Amino acid sequence: MPASECRVVADHSLRTFYCDLLGFRPLSEVQVNDALSAKLLRLPEVDQRTVFVERDGVRLALFALRTPPIQNAGRVRAMNEAGMVALMLRVDDLDATLDTMRAAGVRVLDETRIDHPTYASKLVFVTDPDGLLVELIEIAGDPYAPFGKPVVR
To answer: Is residue 147 part of a domain?
Structure first.
């Protein structure tokens, strides 16, 4: 079973970001508003809609909470904070992707843009609507092959 990364989102502009701009496809949607789910999530009560999306074997669960209110929406976390601070996604044409993202109002962190000659790659960070860093990378080769050296076990 593929792993899913869970994302708490302020609203479903995130679905637009991931599906319309980055090519994720919606898989399913569920409404959650019961006491057992609140217990699982360690919240006094919960009213949320979860949309599951997938791209290239990566699954995200986008949790849109109505109750309780979202905290810290839009805050961009520093790369040295504990926990998940970024996603890395490959794109076919970084410049064309950035043009599309800019036209949609996505925050592009131009100061992070590098063209890395060692890996023949182009990289830059953007932020999703809730502030999560998303590293976009254009690199030649099989998009399904792992990046870097194989891990020896």
So the answer is: no
At a CB cut-off of 8 Å and minimum separation 6, what does 145 contact?
Answer: none
Q: Are both 58 and 107 inside the same structural domain?
A: no
Whole-number pLDDT of residue 12:
56
CA distance 9 to 15: 9
CB atoms within 10 A of CB 113: 14
**Per-residue pLDDT tens for 94-114?**
999 999 999 999 999 999 999
| pTM of the shown model | 0.79
Query: Residue 61 contacts by C-beta under 8 Å, 6 or more apart in sequence?
Result: 4, 5, 6, 7, 50, 51, 52
Return the structure tokens found at 149. 């050296």
Dig out the tokens for 26 from the structure.
């919606």
Say how far apart CA 18 and CA 3 lie, in whole Å.
17
Residue span of the structural domain in which 28 resides: 4-67
